[in-house]
Amino acid sequence: MFHDQPTPFLSVDKAVMTANIARMAKFAAARGVSLRPHAKTHKSWDIARLQVQHGAVGLTVATVSEAEAFARGGFSDLLIAYPLWIDEAKAARIVALLSTTTKLTIGVDSTVSATRLGEYLSTAEHADRLRVLVEVDSGHHRSGVTPERAGDVALAAQRAGLVVDGIFTFPGHGYGLSESRERAAQDEVRALAIARDSLLTSGVNCRVVSGGSTPTAALVNPQFSGADPVINELRPGVYVFNDAQQWEIGSCQPAEIALSVVATVVSMRDNRVVVDAGSKVLGADRAAWSTGHGRLLDYPEARIVALSEHHATIEFGGVPAGSEQPLEYGDRLRLVPNHVCNAVNLVDHYFVSSSAPDAPHLEEQWQVHARGANT
Question: How does pLDDT run across 255-277, given as a tens digit for each residue?
Answer without folding.
Answer: 999 999 999 999 999 889 999 99
